[in-house]
Every structure is written in structure tokens, then in C-alpha cells.
Amino acid sequence: MPVSGQATKGDSTATTLRVVMAQLDFLVGDIPGNTERILQATRQAWDEHQADVVVFPELCLTGYPPEDLLLRPSLDLRVREALSVLQQAALTPAMVIGAPIRSEGRLYNAALVIEDGEIRGRYFKCFPPNYQVFDEKRYFCAGEDTLVLSIKGQPVGITVCEDLWKDGPLEDAAAAGARLILNLNASPYDIDKQARRKSLLERKSRENQVSVVYVNLMGGQDELVFDGGSMVFDHSGRLSAEAPQFETGLYPVDFLCEHYCQPISRPLPDEPSLEANVYSALVTGVRDYVNKNGFKSVVLGLSGGIDSALTLAVAVDALGKERVRAVMMPFRYTSNISLEDAEAEALALGVQYDVFSIEPMYDAFMATLAEPFLGTKPDTTEENLQARLRGVLLMSLSNKFGSLVLTTGNKSELAVGYSTLYGDMAGGFDVLKDVPKTLVFRLSHYRNTVSPVIPERVITRPPSAELAPDQKDEDSLPGYDVLDQILNFYVERDYSADAIVAEGFDRAEVDRVVRLVDVNEYKRRQAPIGVRITERGFGKDRRYPITNGWKSGK
């Protein structure tokens, strides 16, 4: 492979190199704004840390993922103008940025090294991913070349994100003499993702005897959340520095370079619990979706149940109590306990709280429907009408006051269709869309350890939609402990019904759950987006046809 700036280990005297990891949040499509963020961060990295090189995340110039913005005819012009601005700034530190670059008619996901007003090197990502939420092959060609160049006299290799997970790019750079690898990332969050990254980096740095700087994007982009967690591993596979997850910032790391570029270790952040980590992801996703899309506030239905209580807490932690409005919309089946708990939650979090009964609207609708419904018995139609009236109220408040409606359905309900189209599914963003019900309970307990905002009986009493007298979720569904396990096998791991039964589950329950998942794809297609926290969220991850004849038994 062609190599730029090839060097060999041991060809210079010992020196120090200060690398600043720019773990920042960028807005997709805002190329001028992102350019200014890069310049500001580079100036700050020099003023505060005297950086030799500042490393930014993958595709920071456009934000990630830019999706079909990459197909816009003006893309190349906008990128060229931005690169010209960066070069003309002629800042002291070298900048390593990510940008889409066209070469010989082909578009590449590229890393560029800008120093002394010049583009000193460019690297094209060799492995554009095309799985889970990634569809880079729709836009980008695969690069073939290795890039190793001298920065402050040290041979440094450049790679981009997925290139680290495949064999070849890092190994080739190390073989070409790189003492240090700078890896630019836009790696979205899911549970345990950071542990998998660490395992990979430990092995790659140790096997290739090269230090690795891993810089990751931070912030929310539609359903994706990027958690940062930028890291440095030394040539022996030891974690030497780590930026906290879900925090933007500039994180300097010094290297003493002689035979190896050895990072000088820095204190590592505390390891967060799973619940704290997921909660931070939800807060980040809500905050960035609301703010980046220009919403002044959010509104949600507060039922007195656990899902809406947790959603309210996340919204307040993301946006502040002044930007959150909670609305209780009782009906004749709403219990006094629910009314009391909803009010207690609103008071504990200090949000605007309203109570609007749907009883008069329900009676008006039923009077209108009396003739066509003559001779029929009440069923889920009347239950769904209650949910749809609540949806109309919330959407009216949204229209009038410019508030985004947050829906409150969890992943378990969405999976089996335990939700009402144009009712509790009406809204713009579902905070708990990828959170199984059993995890909702754990997150609620966790949030109460920070400050008690969810009444204990909301967590402990049996969940109910309260659309009929004495209704309980488990009247219609298996217990959530069982349901979430079955869903994990079927949705997350693609087990067949037979394979799930072989794991020890009841055949009738498995068949029922699997059928509910299959027949409710049409609902999920019409659901709002929400924060992705698993490897198989509904939306970009799991794309099943609505109309199909697939049998799920085997």
C-alpha cells in the first residue's frame, strides 16, 4: 500500500508530544458552525494546554451521521470553503479532523491533518461499515492507503473508527513505523459498548506495540447518542487516560517519545453503574434533540405510572424544570392514587402541572358514535378512544406553545403493540423507546438515589394503563420479567420461537409474544423516534417488512 511520510521506530531522540482529545458535540449539516467549533477548540487547546496536535471526532466537519446530506450537489463546495477557512487560520497546533472528501470522482470518509496552513496528509477510511445503524457504503468508497506522517518529529499513523475493529489499517500503520495511532470516531452508545471498546484497544495496542489515541464524538443525533469516553492505551495495552462519558471537553495527554511514544498516565474517571450510564444517555439524547431542533419546551402526559414518572425526571434533568410541562388527563377509571402520585412527581420536580379531565370529550365522542356503535359491545375501541383524546390534548398544547410532545412508551410495550396509534404514541420523541420495562424499574430506583422524585408506590404497584376498571398490564401480557427475556431472545438476538422455547419458556407464551411482535410492525413504523441504548433498537437497527409471510416458529 502507498504510505505517506513513512518513518521507522528509533529514528529520533526522546521528545514530548502533547495530544489534546477534542471530545465535542457537533451539529449535523452545520458546516460553518462546526468549522468555528473546530477553530475555537484548537485555539483553546493552545491557550490552555499548549497542544502540539488536536484530534477531533470522525466527520466533525459535517457532523455524524450526515446521511443523504452527503448527496447534496453543494457538499463539495461547502467542504472546500470550510477547509479553506481552517487553513487560513494557520493555528499553531496541528489539527486532525474528519470530513467527507471527493477524490477522482469518489467520495470518502476522510481524516485530514492540517498544520501551518496546509493539508499535510489525508487518510481515507478503509472499512465503511454497513450494519446495525450504519449505512456508510451508501455514500462512501473504501480507502486503500496507509497514512503515517511526522508530527513534531514523531511518526504518527491515522485511522478512522471502523478501521480499528478490522485487521489491516492499524497493523499497516504500525508496520510502516508509526509509534502512535490517532483514531477518529463517531461510535454510538449502547449498553456495555465502552467495555467492548476497551477490550479491542487493549488487544490492538499490545499486539502491535503502538500507543493508540481513541477520540470519540459526544452528543445526541436523532435516535443515536454518542457518549465520548475518549481513551489512550499505551504500547503494552494499558489504559493510560480516559475522558468521562457524556461530557464534552478538551482532554490533554502527554507522550514521552523515544523508542515508543509512552503516554504519561492521568487519573481515570470512576466506572459508572449501568443505570447511571443509561440514564446519562437518555438525558443527553433528550437535551440534544430538543435543543438542536429549536424547541423551547416539552410537554408530556403524566399518568401517575412509572413510565411517565421516569420520562418526566429525564426531561427535567435534560432541560431544566422551567422548560417542562406535565399534564394529568384523568378519566373515570383513573385511581386516586394515580392523581396523588402524579401531583407529587410534578411538585418534587417543580414543573408546570395541569389537570384536564377527558370525561366531557369522551362523552361527546360517544354520543356522536352512538348510532354507528348501536348493537355492539364495549371493547378496546372505547379504551383506545381515551388514549387518543389525551393525544389530541397534548398535540394541541404542542401546536399552541411550540412544545415538543414527549411520549412515554417503553420498549416492551412497543414490541408487543401495547400502545395506541394516535393516542399515547402521538408525539415527537419517545424517551424510553429502547428501554425494556424491567430496566425502567431499575432506572427509577437509580434516579431516586440522586434525589427522591418518584414515589415508592409508583415503582412497586402493578403497572396499569387504567383504561378499564381494575385493569393491570399483566392481564394482557406475561409478567415483565418473563416478557423482557422472551423479547431479548426474539428482538435482540433473533432467536426463533422454537429456539426460545428450548431455553425453557412456555410454548403458549412464546408463540403469543412472537406473534404480537410480528403483527405490530405497522405501529412501530408510525412511532416517534427515541433514544437508542441497545444494539437492536426499533428503527435504524431492526428493519422488518410490514407485509410479509415469514413464519417465526423455526
List its traits.
554 residues; alpha/beta; Rossmann fold; 7-stranded mixed β-sheet; 21% strand; Glutamine-dependent NAD(+) synthetase; ligase
Structure characterization notes:
- This protein is α/β, with parallel strands linked by helices.
- The chain folds into two domains: 3-266, 4-Layer Sandwich (Nitrilase/N-carbamoyl-D-aminoacid amidohydrolase); 276-530, Rossmann fold (3-Layer(aba) Sandwich).
- The protein is built from 16 helices and 22 strands.
- Strand 2 (15-23), helix 1 (31-49) and strand 3 (53-55) form a beta-alpha-beta unit.
- The relative contact order is 0.09.
Summary, kept brief:
With 554 residues, the chain is α/β, with parallel strands linked by helices. The chain contains 16 helices and 22 strands.
Chain-wise SSE layout:
Elements: E1 3-4, E2 15-23, H1 31-49, E3 53-55, H2 75-89, E4 94-103, E5 106-115, E6 118-124, E7 146-151, E8 154-160, H3 169-175, E9 180-185, H4 193-208, E10 211-216, E11 218-221, E12 224-227, E13 231-233, E14 239-242, E15 249-257, E16 261-263, H5 274-292, E17 297-301, H6 306-319, E18 324-328, H7 336-349, E19 352-355, H8 359-369, H9 380-401, E20 403-407, H10 411-416, E21 429-430, H11 437-450, H12 456-460, H13 480-492, H14 497-502, H15 507-519, H16 521-525, E22 529-530
Parallel strand pairs: 1-7, 2-3, 3-4, 8-9, 9-10, 17-18, 17-20, 18-19, 20-21, 21-22
Antiparallel strand pairs: 2-15, 4-5, 5-6, 7-8, 10-13, 11-12, 13-14, 15-16
Helix pairs in contact: 1-2, 5-6, 5-11, 6-7, 6-11, 13-15
